[in-house]
């Protein structure tokens, strides 16, 4: 009898009932399938980002065979190859690029749904992701302070990024919002919320010949020994565009993609720099530096918050927009 299946020793009615009973309920099966799809899409998006199976598996905290099996299952379900394979990852197929765009949107909507349901009573949880151009870094703390007051359980990740990288991050659902210029090189397909107007100053050491003045023309400033941001930064492209319209070019001695480097050179040398008026709100103005108004012309640029222009708006983006609209940044700068 040892070789006879145990079920055959059961009463016939009981055995039939066991065979007819599903392993899981239909509802549980649907939930399992949904979770599997979300997981597969997440693995696929990670692979597209890492462009390497082993790195993608590490990022997902799974083994490479598990990742590969999930991607192949997704391809089978969709009935088409998504990944070009050789001895290693080559790239995505044309269909894979389309699926990547949809996957990013589906995952973003899924996270937004979970965040919306969780945040109805207790405020937002999870991580708010903001991309900020270097010139606007002095303003971001005013907004994040307001956001944290309303959402004490949330965390915030702030990344210094170019305006172009912010646009790419929003398109890929890797950012909830960005702070950048609104009028110069505007980003498409976003909702724009003005925050404040950036004005321009010339910063010089106290020993500089111009230090006794209160203002200086753009033309005179252009002849100084300058350290400016590099041309991959929109702040610099704005300066170049303005001086070009005035009929002259500007040739800095030193360029950097960091305002910290600008500040260091101003403190230790005879350099001058064209900086936003908010520059010394993040770094207290040293007593050995003087800031002059730039005139002929007086120029300003609008800086604001950008979020994806889609409905329904993600809860994180909506909470960020609310915090931004409740913050008077111009007044905040004036009080400091």
Q: In short, what is this structure?
A:
Helices cover 47% and strands 21% of the residues.
The largest sheet is: 8 strands, mixed
Distance between the termini: 89 Å
Broad CATH class of the largest domain: Alpha Beta
Helix content: 40-55%
Number of strands: 12
Stretches where pLDDT is under 50 for at least 5 consecutive residues are 1-24
Strand residue percentage: 15-25%
Number of helices: 13
Give the H and E element order: HHHHEEHEHEHEEEHEHEHEHEEHH
- Architecture per CATH nomenclature, i.e. the level-2 architecture of the largest domain: 3-Layer(aba) Sandwich
Structural class: alpha/beta
CATH topology of the largest domain: D-Maltodextrin-Binding Protein, domain 2
- CATH superfamily of the largest domain, by name, is Periplasmic binding protein-like II
Q: In the residues, how many domains can be counted?
A: 3
Which overall shape is indicated by the principal axes computed on the Cα atoms?
elongated
How many whole angstroms does the radius of gyration measure?
A: 28 Å
In round numbers, the mean pLDDT is 85
Describe the structure.
It is a single chain. The protein has helices spanning 12-20, 26-50, 53-60, 64-78, 94-122, 137-150, 163-171, 218-222, 234-245, 259-267, 279-282, 315-325, 329-335, and strands at 83-85, 89-92, 126-132, 154-160, 177-181, 190-205, 215-217, 227-229, 254-256, 273-276, 289-295, 300-308. The protein is an alpha/beta fold and 336 residues long. Strands 3, 4, 5, 6, 7, 10, 11 and 12 form an eight-stranded mixed beta sheet that branches. Strands 1-2 form a two-stranded antiparallel sheet. Strand 8 (227-229), helix 9 and strand 9 (254-256) form a beta-alpha-beta unit. The chain is elongated and about 75 Å long. Residues 1-24 have low confidence and may be disordered.
């Amino acid at each position: 009898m040892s070789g006879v299946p145990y079920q055959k020793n059961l009463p016939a009615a009981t055995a039939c009932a066991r065979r007819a009973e599903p392993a899981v309920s239909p509802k549980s099966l649907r939930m399992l399938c949904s979770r599997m799809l979300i997981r597969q899409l997440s693995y696929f998006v990670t692979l597209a980002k890492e462009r390497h199976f082993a790195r993608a598996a590490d990022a997902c905290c799974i083994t490479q065979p598990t990742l590969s099996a999930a991607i192949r299952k997704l391809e089978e379900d969709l009935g088409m190859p998504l990944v070009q394979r050789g001895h290693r990852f080559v790239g995505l197929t044309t269909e894979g690029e389309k699926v990547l765009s949809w996957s990013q949107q589906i995952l973003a909507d899924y996270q937004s749904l979970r965040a919306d349901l969780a945040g109805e009573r207790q405020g937002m949880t999870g991580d708010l992701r903001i991309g900020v151009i270097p010139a606007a870094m002095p303003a971001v703390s005013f907004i994040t302070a307001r956001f944290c007051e309303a959402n004490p359980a949330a965390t915030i990740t702030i990344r210094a990024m170019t305006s172009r990288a912010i646009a790419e991050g929003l398109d890929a659902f890797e950012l909830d919002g960005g702070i950048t210029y609104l009028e110069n090189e505007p980003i498409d397909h976003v909702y724009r919320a003005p925050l404040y107007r950036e004005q321009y100053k010339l910063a010089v050491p106290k020993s500089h010949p111009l230090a006794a003045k209160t203002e200086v023309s753009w033309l005179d400033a252009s002849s100084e020994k300058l350290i400016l941001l590099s041309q991959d930064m929109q702040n610099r492209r704005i300066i170049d565009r303005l001086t070009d319209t005035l009929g002259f070019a500007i040739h800095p001695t030193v360029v950097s993609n960091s305002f910290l480097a600008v500040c260091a050179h101003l403190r230790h040398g005879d350099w001058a720099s064209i900086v936003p008026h908010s520059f010394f709100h993040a770094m207290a103005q040293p007593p050995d530096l003087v800031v002059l108004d730039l005139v002929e012309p007086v120029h300003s640029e609008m800086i604001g918050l950008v979020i994806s222009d889609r409905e329904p708006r993600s809860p994180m983006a909506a909470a960020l927009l609310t915090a931004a609209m409740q913050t008077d940044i111009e007044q905040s700068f004036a009080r400091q």
